[in-house]
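Troubleshooting: if your tokenizer reports a length mismatch, compare your output against this known-good record of 505 residues.
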Amino acid sequence: MSAKTYLAIDMGASSGRHVVGHFNGKRLRLEELYRFANGPVGMNNSFFWNLPGLWTDVLAGLRLAGNKYSEALCSVGVDTWGVDFGLFSSKGELLGNPYCYRDARTDGAIERAFEKVSREEIFNQTGLQFMQFNSLFQLFVMKEMQSPILDIADRFLMMPDIFHWLLSGLKSNEFTNATTSQCFDPRKKNWAFDLLDKFGLPTSLFRPTSPPGTILGKLQKSVQEETGLVNARVVLPGTHDTASAVLAVPSASEVGETDWAYISLGTWALMGLESANPVVNDTVARLNFTNEGGVGSTTRLLKNICGLWLIQECRRNWNAQGKKNAEGKPLDWEDLNKMTASASPLTSFINPDAREFLGPTNMPEAIRSFTEKTGQSVPVKEGEILRTILDSLAMRFRHVLGMCEQISGNKIKTIHIVGGGIQNRLLCQAAADATGCRVVAGPIEATAIGNIMMQAIAAGDIAGIREARAVIRDSFPVVEYEPQNTAIWDAAWPRFLKILGENNQ
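Known-good structure output:
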């Protein structure tokens, strides 16, 4: 086949990038074309996403693609984080900027929601883990506050759906992101209308979903004129970034086999199994796992772990305080790795998923406070704080791995870690040491790769997921980490479990 060119717009909670994929029929080569910052904007004591600013950056990257590839670009697709959404009027108007999931308005929403519908019933209809920022609880809070937007809204679109609408002019609800909302029934593969009705939410907002690989059509005329991309089609990837990242796991197992686990490591660490079918049972409910849609009609059976957000926020705080490295520059990621390596391991632990760490104004102080409150040695130096985070994340991976094995009934020997977080080599090695598993790290740009591969599948250039993963194995290197000195991690394990406490799922 002749070489094909695709464009992934991969948008995370802290940054976005336009990544071009060049596929010659055997190997995929990536080219980062444009990168931009992202983050919530505080207004009137709430946090929102700057949608107009993000669209401006999307167009800027598309213009670069148009200037460089013009008619040769085959298609474009967008992936983002989950749960956040916009509501539209019957005239197609967006009714306000979308809220950011870290906004505090959902504090206590889960408990109040349980007064209306039981935890058991919500889980039975959605199969999703309970997190206060899930779309269901955001909508529930809007209903509590008697938001007039709910009264006039006609359509519910999640973040990547909004960008695909802006690109193509067509509104669609892509399957993998819809399943993160806690408004979706994974067994019926449709919205959980009975549940939505019990909460008094307008079920007419929710329209049929479209699977990954759906071709929406060409860019709408105004975008073609703005960018020069006259031939590019808009294709739905797995629009939830983790769905795309899991597609890029270079496993040689059959699709849906549960003999390996994955961690998509970035701001969040999403850890779990690729299952052929949803698993909605008492064990999954007790362990607070989630059934989210994957590519190829698979299920991402996983748990959200607060990931590199903890380190990102420490760096942001220290740089805001004017801390510098040896060269007098703001602290970069390699500086943080060196600080971490200088500190003694397994001294103190935090529960990475404690509410204290969801959105504190001062992450280092929140970590010190947690260790003091739990009667541990309080980390003082920057390296000690970072080491506390790293050790706690590795132990949390061990904890969740045990849950994966309970659910699957399989002994897992290999953990695939993908995403930008694999550049933290200390954490990858710590994950191997804590879990006793071989860790295969790579590829780094997993989300963009998965996005591009789904576009190639939609175009008929790749037969399916197994072939896509074979291409990925041939195209991108991985680094393997074998467990070392596991005895010290085993000895520290009871201390970590004590920090998690009784409610340790």
